[in-house]
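=== Structure Prediction Worksheet ===
Name of assembly: unnamed complex
Input type: mixed (protein and possibly other molecules)
Chain count: two
Listed entries:
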Amino acid sequence: MLAFTVHSGLVAPMDRANVDTDMIVPKQFLKSIKRTGFGPNLFDEMRYLDEGQPGVDCSGRPLNPDFPLNFERYQGASVLLARENFGCGSSREHAPWALVDYGFRCVIAPSFAEIFNGNSFKNGLLPIPLDSDIVDRLFAAMYETPGYALTIDLERQVVIEPNGEEISFEVDAFRRDCLLKGLDDIGITLQSADAIRQFESGYQKTYPWLFHRLEV
Amino acid sequence: MGKTLYDKLWDNHLVEQREDGTALIYIDRHLLHEVTSPQAFEGLRLAGRAPWRISANIAVPDHNVSTDRTERLAGVQALKDEVSRIQLTTLDDNCAAFDIPEIPLDDLRQGIVHVMGPEQGATLPGMTIVCGDSHTSTHGALGALAHGIGTSEVEHVLATQCLIGRKMKNFRIEVRGPLGLGVTAKDVALAIIGKIGTAGGTGFAIEFAGDAIRGLTMEGRMSLCNMAIEAGARSGLIAVDETTLEYVEGKPYSPKGDEWEAAKAFWSTLHSDDDAVFERELVLEAADIKPQVTWGTSPEMVVDIGGRVPLMSEMATDTARSGLKRALDYMGLEEGQRIEDIEPNVVFIGSCTNSRIEDIRAAAKVARGRKVAGGIKQALVVPGSGLVKQQAEAEGLDKILLEAGFEWREPGCSMCLAMNADKLSPGDRCASTSNRNFEGRQGFGGRTHLVSPAMAAAAAVTGRFVDVRTLEEMS
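=== Predicted Assembly ===
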């Protein structure tokens, strides 16, 4: 997995609450059997004026001139500033895949939906929850300042503003550790393989009906 | 101190508690479908890993499948949408390669994974159940700990039979007193979401309790737990009782003989203790709950059928005002508009929320002797599984619906998320029994109003949203 230590990047807005994963990547792109290539279809329905189809080259599609990610000033953004309950709805991991494929490494919002939050960490995308007052202030500063960039230091758990001021944030200790080292969960869990086997053998004796193969 | 139902299920599956607060939780049942599994199988392949325990898994295609009878009878290879066909055949290939049992597309038992699971007894009380689909919360209706996972976790469960997690908090929602006639589990779910919001349950496992919940059938309980995720909670739960045991007994994969007796004894302990402590509690009076209709682009944007779309002046914050404006623009509605003046042109009855036999019966009861209104260009009924379809046909429900002008389709997820050909066109307005009214959810530019099956059928036959309780047969 992509490690995350310190990242500095241009900030772009997604200035609405309850951004759902259908919005982040619409269903027709979920037909892909790959993990990559979702970036051009990130926020597809808002970003383009026509209806997107899988397998179609997006470079010739009409862009929505009112959608911030299409503004010149936000090109190359890697930090997304968002509102409450970001990533709600469907469990599709295609949502963080699309954000990462587009170039985002971090989403800052007052709150995140749980499944999206977990999926993000597994793909090197750092969700940072900050108080809504602070998020309001960052939105205002970003709108006022062309080229507004933030630095995120995961080791120290701080967001550093352009004036050097630091905002500390909370992050799950285990997830932080995995991100810093770029570790994937399966390798970590398999270190406990003996514990799993031991649990399983006792468990099977008590609940044998759970262990029959489901013959179709 | 007593334990909640969630505490009991958690403790029973705890493999390892770690110092950093995370835990390794054992997974009993893993359900797979074609959309969120291909990358997980690919991951196993790349790492040279095999599934930890084959007997935990069962797969079924549902999201992408055609609901058109002719196309279905022709088999997977004849599916017109090539990208969907590749995804469906990839599931077949992966299940064959990794020896995972799969209910194939042309099997009578095929259906929406969250309908098939309980129907087959593949999901049982006391289990931990996961699936790469957020509506896995459905299975909590059986007194199981069930939640949706992403594709990385699908791979993790396949490889290790465990998930890394943190314990959630307990939230008890009690619904007191009997539900009124014409008020369903769907209305209870929407009323709760209207009250606590789509993030109201974030971080919690919600246990639904109270006599209104006890009085629900298993189908109704599944509809309710299904929508827990729309309240932000990954898991919804309902304690095991006689209704649960009666439902589970005799299902194809349910335990038999001595195992049934042992299972029943264990399952009977699956309820919260009297002195259990919940971090959060909410009480609703069932008598206050009326048929619900969503008007906006989030399930929390919901009112009683007799209500109105909110006014801009009622919004407290700038984000709320801009959210309302955006929702009204998208939905093509005016602030303060009466719900009963809204006229859908499409009706969809189906989805993992409302495609079980009781849902089809409720729709047919309203449709009997009536006709789909002239303004409705399409009224789809998509049963949740081949077995639901068969049962409905045995009861003659298909005939009633067809005579009224509904289409009677083959099972699948269909227009709930519109990954197949069943979708709204831009500007269409749909009365839908599904679970999400997000922008574009049912098709690019499509507008969704979430309702119960009876309310959807009532909208179909009257051409507008109407209080189903005022229709003759219901009173």
